[in-house]
Amino acid sequence: MRLLTVNVVEELIPGPKEDALGWTAIDKRPQTGRVAVGELGLVGDRVCDTKHHGGLDQALYAYAQEDADWWATELDREIPAGLFGENLRTEELDITNALIGEVWRIGAEVEVMVRVPRIPCITFAHRMQIPGWVKRFHQAGRPGAYLKVLTTGTIGAGDPIKILERPDHEVTIGDVFGDQNPVKMKAMLDSGVDLTDELRGIALRVIARAG
């Protein structure tokens, strides 16, 4: 398992919104050398819509090369690193089946925690210019994951990725993005794993609906 690219915003580009948030930082490009990682993400990166993106629980967005390859075949086009707005393009790491709360070490210093799946938005749809993209992305079940930075440092292309901890439950990124099983959700809550407020709320609603 390794890091293929580290991607930082190239330039702000027009987004879908005709207001003060009319710009987006989704245009990420691979960087050479090592990039510093702080609690809020990569040094030199940007977030425009801070109401819906960024923050400690969305400091980094990781997407697997294997999923990008699947999309390349599906769409009959290349999916270069950063096209989906991801900060990290990984190899041989099954992000869809990563557990909520799982901890990775990237390189020698940086440690991150898997938090929640990426939910496709109108900015992503505008970026791709594919009719029905939000629905299509959701149905594919390959969302990638947002990460929280636990230990800062530097990372670079080629760094190994090691899974340090896996919590005692079975809820994966794919489960949260798709089939939200109430039994699994309850086990996740009971495990005591650190959850975002939003995910805790989702789990409680799923359990309540199940009766």
Briefly say what this structure is.
By secondary structure, the protein is an alpha+beta fold.
What tags apply to this protein structure?
211 residues, alpha+beta, M1 Pyruvate Kinase, Domain 3, 8-stranded mixed β-sheet, 3-stranded antiparallel β-sheet, 27% strand, Pyrv_Knase-like_insert_dom_sf, MOSC domain-containing protein YiiM, MoCF_Sase_C
Task: Give the radius of gyration.
Answer: 17 Å
The major pleated sheet works out as: 8 strands, mixed
As for the number of domains, it is 1
Instruction: Quote the distance from N terminus to C terminus.
Output: 41 Å
- Average pLDDT value? 93
Work out the number of β strands. Answer: 13
Give, in order, the helices and strands.
EEEEEEEHEEEHHEEEHHH
Helix share, percent:
25-40%
Strand percentage lies at 25-35%
Number of helices: 6
Order of strands across the widest beta sheet?
A: 4-1-8-7-11-10-9-13
Kindly report the name of the CATH homologous superfamily: PK beta-barrel domain-like
CATH class placement: Mainly Beta
Q: Within the CATH hierarchy, at the fold level, what is the topology? A: M1 Pyruvate Kinase, Domain 3
Quaternary organisation = single chain
Explain this structure:
Strand 5 (35-38) and strand 6 (41-42) form a beta hairpin. The strands form 3 sheets. Strands 4-1-8-7-11-10-9-13 form an 8-stranded mixed sheet. The protein has a single domain, classed as M1 Pyruvate Kinase, Domain 3. By secondary structure, the protein is of the alpha+beta class. The longest helix is centred in the C-terminal third of the chain and has 14 residues, at 197-210. The N and C termini lie far apart (41 Å). The chain has helices at residues 65-75, 122-128, 133-140, 173-177, 182-191, 197-210, and strands spanning 2-9, 13-14, 23-24, 28-30, 35-38, 41-42, 60-64, 88-91, 103-106, 110-117, 145-151, 153-155, 161-165.
